[in-house]
Amino acid sequence: MIDLEFSEQQQLLQHTARNFFAAQCPIAKVRSLETSDLGYSDELWKSMAKLDWVGLSYPTELGGAAGSILDLYVLYAEMGRCLAPTPHLASSVIAGETILRGGSEAQRGRLIPEMSRGDLIVAPALTESDGAYGADAVQLVAQADGENGYRLEGAKILVPYAHVAGQLLVAARTGSGPDGVTLFLIEPGAKGVDVEKLGNIANYPLFAVTFDGVAVSRDAIVGPVGAGWATLEPVLDRASVLQCAEIVGAGEAVLDIAVNYAQQREQFGQPVGKFQAVQYLCSDIAIDLHLTSLLARQAAWRLDAGLPHAREVALAKAQASESAQHMVRQAHEVQAGHGFMMETDLQLYTRRAKHWEFNLGDVHHHLDAAVAAL
Amino acid sequence: MIDLEFSEQQQLLQHTARNFFAAQCPIAKVRSLETSDLGYSDELWKSMAKLDWVGLSYPTELGGAAGSILDLYVLYAEMGRCLAPTPHLASSVIAGETILRGGSEAQRGRLIPEMSRGDLIVAPALTESDGAYGADAVQLVAQADGENGYRLEGAKILVPYAHVAGQLLVAARTGSGPDGVTLFLIEPGAKGVDVEKLGNIANYPLFAVTFDGVAVSRDAIVGPVGAGWATLEPVLDRASVLQCAEIVGAGEAVLDIAVNYAQQREQFGQPVGKFQAVQYLCSDIAIDLHLTSLLARQAAWRLDAGLPHAREVALAKAQASESAQHMVRQAHEVQAGHGFMMETDLQLYTRRAKHWEFNLGDVHHHLDAAVAAL
Amino acid sequence: MDIRFTPEQDAWREEVRDFLDAELPPEKAFDVEFDEDEALWEFSHAFTKKVGAKGWLGLNWPTEYGGLGRPPIDRMIMSEEFEAREAPLSGSIGWGLTAGSLLAGGTEEQKQHWLPKLGRMDLHVAEGLSEPAAGSDLASLTTTAKRDGEHWVISGEKTYTTWGTHADWLFTAARSDLTASRHRGITMFLVPLDLPGVSMSPMLNLGGGRQNHTFLDDVRVPHEYMIGEEGGGWHMIMNAFYGGGIHAGHAYYERAFAAVLEHCKQTRRGDGLLIDDPIVRQQLGQLALIAEQLKMLTYESVSNFNNQKPPSFGGAIGVVVSKEARPRFFELCNRIVGPLCQLQEGRFAPMRGQVEAWYRHSYANHAGGTSQVKRMVLATRGLGLPR
Amino acid sequence: MDIRFTPEQDAWREEVRDFLDAELPPEKAFDVEFDEDEALWEFSHAFTKKVGAKGWLGLNWPTEYGGLGRPPIDRMIMSEEFEAREAPLSGSIGWGLTAGSLLAGGTEEQKQHWLPKLGRMDLHVAEGLSEPAAGSDLASLTTTAKRDGEHWVISGEKTYTTWGTHADWLFTAARSDLTASRHRGITMFLVPLDLPGVSMSPMLNLGGGRQNHTFLDDVRVPHEYMIGEEGGGWHMIMNAFYGGGIHAGHAYYERAFAAVLEHCKQTRRGDGLLIDDPIVRQQLGQLALIAEQLKMLTYESVSNFNNQKPPSFGGAIGVVVSKEARPRFFELCNRIVGPLCQLQEGRFAPMRGQVEAWYRHSYANHAGGTSQVKRMVLATRGLGLPR
After folding, report:
1. Which of D331, D379, D335, D386 is nearest to D358 (CA)?
2. Mean pLDDT of C125-139
3. Pick the CATH number of A230-373 from 1.20.1050.10, 1.10.3720.10, 3.40.630.30, 1.20.140.10
4. Which chain D residue has the Cα nearest residue A200?
5. What value does the mean pLDDT take over residues A124-150?
6. Cβ atoms < 10 Å from Cβ of C46
7. Confidence band of C329 (pLDDT split at 50, 70, 90)
8. Which residues of chain B neighbour A270 with C-beta distances below 8 Å?
9. How far out from the chain centre does Cα C136 lie?
10. Domain limits of chain A?
11. Domains along the sequence of chain D with CATH
């Protein structure tokens, strides 16, 4: 049965989330949070936790709501629309689902309920200084150190929310090849760990974390030694689709901004939206985000259905990365000098879109991955 | 002194050539020649020879007119405008200039005057079955065979004008690496040579030539053994710029076709040229070909001035290959269903543009070459 | 949300495949738009009649008009399979456009009379809407129809008449009321092509197909060949344009993509296989992306139908994306294949010259209005921008 | 045809380089458009005054107005060198737009009075043309100027006032005749920013610069500050827009390209250097191509001037190409650099965060009208398509 609509329950979630974020996270708040020390609102985060959204996809016995990836999709589209600044993708999805998937009973029991309640943030530390994406890019060394532990040496960058994380989820190299990556849980306050803020276009809370001979015990390992990337990869697929959803929601807001402006702004005696050139710009945005939405929903559905999905995820994120860039460029053309002003909302989307474009693999990575999956 | 105008003499040539081709090679003639057995007009070719255009760039003592590459540029733009079907690029430029540059006194004295008169066509046989461009792509084997000769084994494709060539100029491999290419002059009627027509989009006279143990004597070698690519490369640079010029001339004709149509065709109660979408399409064509013209003229001038030119030639042909494709696509959008009809002139340009786009290196080759030249 | 087919739909797909296995030898697959080979066309007519005999041409029509009353998704599934094998289904102007028009605005009597015939492919119908001055702007047509007793006298010039020489009827539009506004006063007719006053001259196209100029010179057409109501033509065409279920346009691209991918896996250039060239891989990824976009747009149409939702963005987005994708898709194919893409035949031509042919065909993307016109629809009807 | 510089021109280039070697320490190079650092701005004002003292701000102006009477190519050469070092030349609204307007339509007296001052950078002038409802369509401005004896009383709101807080004058346009047609009745003024009734509120921009809302509330401006003829503003602006010789816009791209190329030669990603990645090479090739296009368009302007030829395509092609290239160029830079392109500072930020800054700056490409407006000029004035 071909049916691309969300379920009634999902539509209800959509409706609730849209109202929630409109009320709890108006654009003025987004602006003020952006330049705050935390970069997000713990109050908003806790409110989301009360609604069961923080652990939406976690098992109910660990405090979650057993939601599907399509449920998350709905939530992410609404977060994207309002630019809600939350550690959800980093902590709830990438870190949390990795722990769920690879962690020991003890790790899950200890961390997941706390994460569900919004009381613990776990920050994934994956990317290194060359910015490359994939198992090969993990070069930070975890050297076996006696019977019971490892010593970590190296640096991670673009680590989100490291400043408020209770734990870091670190991908490190314990051997060569794709099967030589191991995941470690490390406290940011541990000896030898240094956290440094990275100024960036989106004012997103991103950090460099350096590990200077950091000692880690074996029980901090998530999943079998060497199986880190295998544990992580399916979670990154899920995260990529949610990144697409966030872009779609943001794109709908950008489209509204552009269309409203084109309807109201008059030049040469008519609304600029009457000029075909402006109609093309607006319809480019509509097309981009509509295609992104279709491809991302397909990928999300395949993930939920347990079907092969490598190709669909890759195509969705390739499309989303292109769209993230293209939709803001076209909207800037519509708004011209106006859109360049910080007082307009467009620039808030523009700056975040650049983060999204590259987060979890850029268009080149995913086009190549799509071909690899054929 | 920055001056991008043609000299008075070049403007005279331009004027003469434009009138000549308009009179001698109207579009109806282009159509009928396209499907003729020869694929070109020997009469037209001989008339061009009488005007000194066939050997335009050859030394006067060998029957040429000692013209510059910019002189040739002017001629090629006019040939492109009228789609004049001639073996000039293949024979006069690629083969002729290679012989001039690498050939022995005897070879030059024997061949060049005859070529200048339009009595001899020499067909360069460079490309092989994978279509790749460059020294590495030469794989056809020339095996030393006793003291006095070689034996050639292999096949060349996309060989222009092989059906009427008195000689083939064949690049063959006598050793490994870029210094392992040697050039041979071989008669198409020689034992073991087989010439086979290749049907193609432009109905351009293109052939596959197979060499089945063809015996060649040492005096058929052009230039030193192993120096074939070094001899050829500067000539191919010149030819690339002239291919750009042909695209520019054709582009001006395509622009005229599109603009005239947009001015005259009415839909929804107004000329379609009043719609901004159509204005964009037409201005795309104008921009493409104007940029191609600027870059190609710069490259031509640098060649004439004896200045380094690898980067400028590569950028010009990269731009020209893009333009060849883009300008016809945009013109088809302007003319919509009309342009799809064989009775319109546009399709004559469309089909040839596909040949030009790939002739002498495609956009990817030349963008890479431009970076290599930095 | 669900993107699976039901067991019944899977079974239907198998039925279609079995039919094609039995009735379509691979060497008879061809593109009816762009091949004038007489023997192939004869096969195509016979093949299409067999499809008609199974009721599949009218698959979605109500059973009372000779249809099978099946939902649009079944048509889409059939279309996917037919496209996947390049099945030479001819006569879509009859069982597609004419039938769609009848279903949109025909009288009960007309539907009873014509639809069963069209569904069996008893009539071969050619396209007769476009005129030299009326392309995307169909409402500007000038062919006239004057009532004279039980006949209409039709005069005018039609252009781009696709399949004119393979057909025996012309589905045409004429202005029956010169005093009415542009969009009113247009009436549709089915005109037998052997009537006195009908003549054609060929218009060959870049794709390799034949279209025609069709001249109607005081052609006396019986009133019973009028389709729909007098003056109701515009409304009917706009509602019917290539109606008859959801076409699986994406399958055309999927077939091409599969062929190019296979080529890249088999073909060396320089040191390695094309499939290992990073730039080629990016281009293949772009092709896969376009095909996937179009597939999802098709599936969305099915989903919208299932959920009784109106088409997205005024129905324009699928048309815009596919019209704009077509030249781009096949330019990319050219670039992947390289200079050999210009070859049409012979042992050096990659993929039997298909890449060359597809590229020429890609410029035939204006039927039903240009992408420029569809962009206007998307912007105004879909986004609410001012006209 | 010739694309060489004369020995005199080469010597002039050396003179400019020597000046920059002496007067511009590399750490003082910055983009005056997008940096509000007070210390840098102080340096910029002093630096610009030194340039003015050499007569170079009015390099092309007639000598009788304090200029050096040099040809546009000398300005282009100077501009190439200034761009190559990101020289912080401030005040172009004064010595560029205001002076250009005066040269295009000022009275002899006005030229004598203002040009020498502008050429010495005695006046710091801010841009005061745009209004909230008058951007690309400047003729729709609504600020009014009423004559009252020896004064004009100016009221209205201006927007995007670039450098408002660094300036002490505003070059502005007001409607002095409400009964005249849109394009007539506009008059230009230089308004001292310390006059009663002038106020500003900040408009920060995405590039990191400060523009302003400027409110003019019954500001009494002496008649002698009127520029050009009463009602002659439109003509003057259209002829003067950023006049003052030929700007070497391409050098901005060449500088960026050189930096990115160097980055690619130095930086490893995965197994190899970026410069050896085939996809990166294609992207670098695209960047080089854009820079080369813009260079040749600049040189063509020089050539056209030398040959007394009118500008190509109504003067629109260079503007269209550069406006459309700008975001595309810097998006490509982002893609080459990868996810690190979002970083603004610190040891992990490639190229000291320049790629991030360039990208934000790239959306400031609407001064002088959008590319959409310039495309219309190209199509109608350049190609003769109907308006």
Report:
1. D331
2. 88
3. 1.20.140.10
4. D343
5. 94
6. 13
7. very high
8. none
9. 16
10. 8-116, 122-224, 230-373
11. 7-119 (1.10.540.10), 125-233 (2.40.110.10), 250-382 (1.20.140.10)
**Type of residue numbered D132:** P
ipTM over 0.95: yes
Residue C270 pLDDT greater than 90, yes or no: no
Average per-residue pLDDT in chain C? 94
Chain A neighbors of B280, CB-CB under 8 A: 277, 280
Assess D353–A contact: CB distance below 8 Å, yes or no. Answer: yes
How far apart, in whole angstroms, are the C-alpha atoms of residue C199 and residue C201? 7
How many other C-beta atoms are found inside a 10 Å radius of the C-beta of residue A179? 16
Model confidence at C242: pLDDT above 50: no
- Among chain D, residues having any CB pair with chain C shorter than 8 Å are 277-279, 282
How many other C-beta atoms can be found within 10 angstroms of the C-beta atom of residue B150?
A: 23
Pick the CATH number of A122-224 from 2.40.300.10, 2.40.110.10, 2.30.29.30, 1.10.10.410: 2.40.110.10
Which pLDDT tens digit goes with each residue over B65-109?
Answer: 999 999 999 999 999 999 999 999 999 999 999 999 999 999 999
pLDDT, tens only, B273-286:
999 999 999 999 99
Q: Which chains touch B (3 or more CB pairs under 8 A)?
A: A, C, D
Mutate to test the interface with C, among B333, B334, B359 (most CBs of C within 10 A): B333
A&C contacts, CB < 8 Å = 138
- Give mean pLDDT, residues A77-81: 98
Closest partner residue to D204 (CB to CB) among A206, A325, A342 is A342
Cβ contact C342–B358 (<8 Å): yes
Q: What is the pLDDT of residues A280-307, one digit of tens each?
A: 999 999 999 999 999 999 999 999 999 9
At A354-371, the pLDDT tens digits run: 999 999 999 999 999 999
Strand partners, C172: C128, C189
CA distance C223 to chain B (A): 30
Taking residues D343-362, report their average pLDDT: 96
* Mutation target vs D (from B4, B8, B73, B366; most D CBs, 10 A cutoff): B4
pLDDT band at D27 (very low <50, low <70, confident <90, very high): very high
For A276, nearest residue in chain B (alpha carbons): B276
Q: What sign for the dihedral angle of Cα B222, B226, B229, B231?
A: negative
Q: Which residue has the tokens 């985000």?
A: A289
Interface membership of D384 toward B (CB under 8 Å)? yes
* CATH T-level topology, domain A8-116: Butyryl-Coa Dehydrogenase, subunit A; domain 1 (1.10.540)
At which residue do the structure tokens 């399916």 appear? A234
Q: How far apart are CA D171 and CA A65, in angstroms?
A: 63
Looking at CA atoms only, how far is residue D275 from chain B in angstroms? Answer: 9
The reply to whether residue C348 touches residue B325, judged by beta carbons under 8 angstroms, is no
Interatomic CA distance for residues A227 and A247, integer angstroms: 31
Measure in Å the smallest separation between the Cα of D336 and chain A Cα atoms: 10
- Going by pLDDT thresholds of 50, 70 and 90, the confidence category of residue D246 is confident
Tokens 């050793």 identify what position? B175
Number of residues written out for chain D: 387
> CA-to-CA distance for D233 and D228, rounded, in angstroms?
7
The full length of chain C comes to 387
* Per-residue pLDDT at D244 exceeds 70: no
Chains that touch D (3 or more CB pairs under 8 A): A, B, C
In this structure, how many other beta carbons lie within 10 angstroms of the beta carbon of residue B151?
17
pTM: 0.97
Give the CB-side neighbour count of residue D7, counting CA atoms within 13 A.
0
pLDDT digits (tens, 9 = 90+) for D69-80: 999 999 999 999
Q: Which of A8-17, A38-47, C165-174, D127-136 has the lowest mean pLDDT?
A: D127-136
